[in-house]
Amino acid sequence: MAATFAQSAKQKVTVTDLTRIKQVGGIRIAPDGQRALYAVTTIEPNPDQKEEYDYKTHIYLTGLKPGDTKALTRGTESARQAVWSPDGKQIAFVRTVKGKGQIFVMPLDGGEAYQLTNGKYGVSGPAWSPDGKRIAFTANVSMAEMLNDSLLNPGKRGPVWSLEKPGFVNNDFVKESKAKPNPDGTLAEIRAYLNKDVEDKKAKVINRLNLQGESTTEPDMSFQHLYVVDAREGAQPKPLTRGFKSFQASDWLPSGQGLVAVTDRDSLKHPDREQDNAIVYIPADGSGRYTLVLGEAGKSYYAPEISPDGRQLAFLTSPAQGVNFGQIGLAAFTGTAVSGMQLVTFDRAAGNLTWTETASPKGKKAVATYAIYFTAPSNGGYPLYRLDPGTKQVTQLTDVNTGVSNFDVAGSTVVFAKTEVVNPSELYVADAAGKNQVKLSSHNDWVAQRTLSFPEKRTYKNSIGQTVEYWIMKPAVVEAGKKYPLLLNMHGGPTAMWGPGEPSMWHEFQYFCSQGYGVVYANPRGSGGYGLNFQRANVKDWGTGPTEDVLAAATDAAKEAWVDTSRQVITGGSYAGYLTAWIVAHDNRFKAAFAQRGVYDLTTFMGEGNAWRLVPNYFGGYPWEAEAQKVLDANSPYTFVENIKTPLLIKHGENDLRTGVIQSEMMYKSLKILGRPVEYVRMPGATHELSRSGNVRQRIDRMLRIYEFFERYIGPDAQGLTQK
């Protein structure tokens, strides 16, 4: 009776509970191993705009004991990317000042944080030098800024690679002209006039290949450069890199003499065309030189991490083109060169490589030993793994029913953020084996007062012999003898992966279950988290094969006693927006469908989406190649638009250039001409990231529109609406 009363006292998950979820990340263990920094991202009401919200991130300190946490930063401006000084007495972090990220330093023994940088370019990624005297960071510099920056571009010349402007050689057009703008003047004055129009945002002149950003076209490139600054007030940063190329993912050598970073392998090739990445050594003397450490034609090397003793380099590598994920590589390291490179056998997409010392030397002959910790998507969760660099053996430390979204490790202590069904994000500490987990924070304890639905995992053997995993979630409250609608919800990517340990869908799944829907979701062929062969199983087959897998899951879920088989609905976003349209063009079981920010015609997607390389990577060619065009047409939902009779709601962010809005406009307009039941929702200002990190009010709107549209056809007032 007590259990029944406690359950009934709980509330259902509401749509506005989205604003209560707090995400834990940015974890850094202190040098003494007794404390840790972490960040918490919250959704806060905007004080000046009713019903609007702002994302805020602030830095917390924990003593690695339950409840021993406190906020180090507060206020309207977020603080992020916090890192410890080597002596543990200070932290550096990034805060926005006048629209630009700047580095601040905060003493932990008392005193206010002071602003260390005041650069004209926004900065990010602070990293203390091993001696604690300097901080390296990254700055983002536009093409126009590069052309006029004498430190990053001595001589203020153009790049050595062609800017590909027709009719010009050697980039002569970038040279400074003394001509005054005059529409009726000489050719030089007309060019000056046209350039002024570009400056005044009256025109965009595009010559680059990757012209689409996330929210707008980007005629000009930008470049990331590394700087270093003394960790004292008033110090002036100096650039460590120069030229028209980007440097990312830097890591200090233990000696402090330089860093390793990632850049384009071929400096003579336009960055939009160069797909090979290389790892380079950059001395910290400000000379601007760098030395190639790892690079090879047709391959990418990235995510370099140096062992604590500086003698080994861990990294990720993969072919630069095609459908792939990174493999872990290890090599002996001298500081500027590697030898004895070996790849680790591990059939998952590893990330967040982190070295730790597992045993300190005692005695003259003793040698320190190390391990590498990392995470990878696998079977519906994001486990933590440990790699022994000596034996190359990988050990899984946490289970696939939860997700480690961020972590740090020091000796025998692991601090991590965990997602699970009972809580979307909290901070934990565990031993070196991931055991004896202790919950440190209580940022989302409000979830304990909600009635949750717990997924049941099942498997299906598909027609090509692969095991497909899927999960069924009952409505949050099921009454005996009552029937409920079933929602097939599908993931995008197509290499994404869903499961109980995947954080982005926690709220959406629980919300629909609280509204009385059952939910089924699957990881069809092509998903990440199941190995490279599984991930490549949808090459030249985005529609038919994955449809078999997700519909098998839906068919099995529909056999549950609580399912009303006459009230099945379907939705998905991005690639799953594609799959939603494909399915309703080939299957009529669903009473309504909602296709979100999808791709529907692969030829036009090749032109308008910034993810256009999916076309050659998955379908083996380009639309102007006859054989490839046949494959593209056969795999485009738009080819089968006339077969769609299921009521369809189509949504797209108005500034979404990942997939491009013409995709949804073509689908909507065609269905409208055909007289089919279709509605189109455009979200002003929204990008492809709408459902994850977009405007909060629009995120709420999105979920409510899914629910409201489905209720038109399967709700109590639907009146048996169908399409003949």
Structure characterization notes:
It comes from Fibrisoma montanum. Keywords: Hydrolase, Protease, Serine protease. This is S9 family peptidase. The protein is an alpha+beta fold. It has a domain of about 270 residues: 3-Layer(aba) Sandwich (Rossmann fold), CATH 3.40.50. It has 13 helices and 38 strands. An eight-stranded mixed β-sheet has the order 31-32-34-33-35-36-37-38, sandwiched between helices. Strands 2-3-4-5 form a four-stranded antiparallel β-sheet, with no helix packed on it. A four-stranded antiparallel β-sheet has the order 6-7-8-9, with no helix packed on it.
Residue runs with pLDDT of under 50 for 5 or more positions: 1-6
Main sheet, how many strands, which sense, barrel?
A: 8 strands, mixed
The strands making up the biggest β-sheet line up spatially as: 31-32-34-33-35-36-37-38
Q: What percent strand?
A: 25-35%
Helix content: 10-25%
Task: Set down the secondary structure blueprint.
Blueprint: H1 2-8, E1 11-12, E2 23-29, E3 36-45, E4 53-62, E5 69-71, E6 79-84, E7 90-97, E8 100-107, E9 114-115, E10 123-128, E11 134-142, H2 143-147, H3 187-199, E12 222-230, E13 238-239, E14 248-252, E15 258-264, E16 277-283, E17 291-294, E18 299-306, E19 312-319, E20 327-333, E21 338-343, E22 351-359, E23 369-375, E24 384-387, E25 394-396, E26 403-410, E27 413-420, E28 423-431, E29 438-439, E30 450-451, E31 456-461, E32 467-473, E33 484-490, H4 506-514, E34 518-522, H5 532-535, H6 544-557, E35 563-573, H7 575-584, E36 592-596, H8 602-608, H9 614-619, H10 626-634, E37 648-653, H11 662-673, E38 678-683, H12 690-693, H13 696-714
Parallel strand pairs: 1-30, 33-34, 33-35, 35-36, 36-37, 37-38
Antiparallel strand pairs: 2-3, 3-4, 4-5, 6-7, 7-8, 8-9, 10-11, 11-12, 12-13, 14-15, 15-16, 16-17, 18-19, 19-20, 20-21, 22-23, 23-24, 24-25, 26-27, 27-28, 28-29, 31-32, 32-34
